[in-house]
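Technical note accompanying the year-one report. For the benefit of new consortium partners, we illustrate the data format agreed upon in the data management plan: each record pairs a sequence with a structure-token string. No post-processing was applied to the example shown here.
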Amino acid sequence: MSELAAILARELAAPPAGEAPHLAPWADGLRERARQDFSRNGLPSTRVEAWKYTSLRGLERTIGALGALPAETGPEAPPPLVDGPRLVVHNGQLAAVQGEVPTGVTITDLRTALANDREGLREMLESLPTDQPADGFVALNSADLGPGVLVHVAAGTDAGRLLLQWCSGPSAAGRLCNSRVCVRLEPGARLELIEQFEGEGAAEHCLNAVTQVHLGEQAELAHACFQQWPRGSALIALREIRQAAASRYHYTGLDAGASLVRHDVRTTLAGPGAGCRLDVACLGMARAHADNHLQVTHEAGDCASVQTFRGVLAGRARAVFNGRVLVQPGADGTDASQSSAGLLLSPHAEIDAKPELEIHADEVTASHGATVGQLDEDAIFYLRSRGLDVEAARQLLTMAFCRPVTDAMRPGPLREALSARLDAALQALGSPHG
């Protein structure tokens, strides 16, 4: 076990300062089982297959304590990506709900929901395993269960847009904060959920965020995440989605900051006719490290999934993409596609891509492709022949390379905002020869 894991395990075992939070008995039991799992396995190392490209040595140099911190009122949250109601989360804890929440939408501080034993919450939380070596961060999150938020959308409700802003205060420096977001959409409900990781805050901090989503029949969730935290910060994020029949889930992830980023997105198509789309882009410079693991499990028949990854790296940045499609027996009629492409703007940058297809059913349509390379010199020559200088030609081609991720979104203010952030971040990468 690493030194950091040992420190965190000791803090989890220590009695809480002050009055212990009142939780439902099953929640206390869940926390204790997860604590034991974490004490046994610790944090994942590169010897674990799912983490072999992602070392935590940098995190161990900057983090030295568990972030059991109060929600702070400052620093100010960054300007919102889009207008609408928003949840402000400081140091992993719900600090404020701003704007008018639509009728049919209930937002509850997770600790309050656990104390009141909200219906359906136990089933959701206990479904996430914590006992394997690769599950170290999930075990840590569950052992510290309490900080976070529950979002519930009633059947048939069109909830519109909800912005979740993640912020860190000065007290988070050198600490690892845990937070859990639970989202439940009843049959026929719709929601656009946006996560914004922006702002200065504490550079040397880590957020370990777990999001669990249950979609009822014909429910629809458009889920977008934009991350541009300062260098020195770290984000470890797991998103676990379970979809009932004819439900729709669309995830768009854009990373343009932090020193260490790990995203696990796992979607289970549990009912016939369900569909999901996972689109991810990461932009890295200096020694930034971004690891994206996407997995779609087809349990039911006649379901469709799409995975798209685009990575643009400069300096000594490194990106990892592991995309997996698992088709279970009986999931006939599956249609799954996967595309991974990387663009290296520096001879020292690196992308590791690992597409996987595992099929145990008949009558399946499945495809995948993975490429890594540099800008096409013929295309640069063509654009220069049309009047662009070499740097403008490179910028134009680089921006076009990432466009499939944002172009797949529904037209509207969010797509425009993310496209503008993407273009600005690509420009910041600078010239490959600079």
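Partners are asked to follow this layout when depositing records. The mean pLDDT is 90.
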